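[Help] Beginner question about ligand-bound structures

Sorry if this is basic. My supervisor gave me a protein sequence and a SMILES string for S-adenosylmethionine and asked me to "get the holo structure". I don't really know what that means in practice or what format the answer should be in. Inputs are pasted below exactly as I got them.
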Amino acid sequence: MNNTLMDSLLQELCPDGIWQLSDLIKSILRRQISNLPMGNVSKDEIRYPKSPAAMRVYLIRFFSRHYFQTQNNLFKYITSQDFYNTIRLGRLRILEVGSGPAITSLAITDMLVRLLEHLEDIGEWPKGKSVEVDYILNDTCSLCLGTGKHMLANYFQNHHGYNRKVVRGQIISMQKDFPDNLSQLQRIRSNIGKYDITTFSHALLPMIEGKGFKNIVLGLFNVEKLCNFNGRILILEDRFRAELVQQISRAIGISYNFEKIVQQIYPKRNMSEIFTYSHYSSLYIPTQKMMIRQNSIA
Ligand SMILES: C[S@@+](CC[C@H](N)C(=O)[O-])C[C@H]1O[C@@H](n2cnc3c(N)ncnc32)[C@H](O)[C@@H]1O
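Answer (accepted):
No worries, everyone starts somewhere. Holo just means with the ligand present. The predicted complex, written as structure tokens, is below.
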């Protein structure tokens, strides 16, 4: 895709180098937060929310952070020929493992909506042509799956006019833990096709704690076989997880980046509105095990 398109899309998502949520996503997030109760929650509960009060704090603290990390790391892929070749067939399948409230699915969907608008504006996308997106959300926590499904449904229901170029396909939620769910993931793949984008966002640590390092590594290898050869697997991890990221990347043969991104905090808190967060990321082509080297976009 041409540089002008990339520049104007990036300027919309990340004006002057500061990542920002769209009004649409802000309203969905605000509504979700306001429907959840306030309450005392421990540090551990906030990281892995299982109660409505913990989910409220999780969304306030982590939604925008994980959302921008996803967009920052996938921006080059979303504007690549590989991605265009996928969406021009009219379908996109997103697999989110350890999905929590489906933040990466929302980040990808909103970026796709804006991409198609830009492509249509410059005559590179046929008017009226849409892309149907299927979501496969996997989490052991039912509240996370419910919240993710709800936010995605809200996105499509309430803003039909705005996102008419992106159509909601199936939203499949799966509560069985990864990687014990591989046969289910395989079955879904046989029904709907290979996964185009697979994300493991801040999910490897609890998975390793629950299932063991070897099983998760094996699971990562097996998931690759279910992915589209044009697709990508994205791993995101906290900046405190250097050792974990090194171990995983050595075990599966990928490299990783340390990224710093500047973002507008949302919802606003009692601090500066602009903040810089850092994180680790790996983005690779499943079939080629090739790391896509990229520095932070902004
Ligand atoms: C820190 S949260 C990350 C949520 C979301 N991906 C994000 O980026 O905000 C980690 C999630 O992984 C889920 N999880 C833990 N072990 C899992 C497993 N074996 N299979 C699937 N999900 C798991 C937890 O329930 C939790 O919702």
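A couple of things worth pointing out: Residues 3-291 form a domain with the Rossmann fold fold (CATH 3.40.50.150). The chain has one domain: 3-291. Feel free to follow up in the thread.
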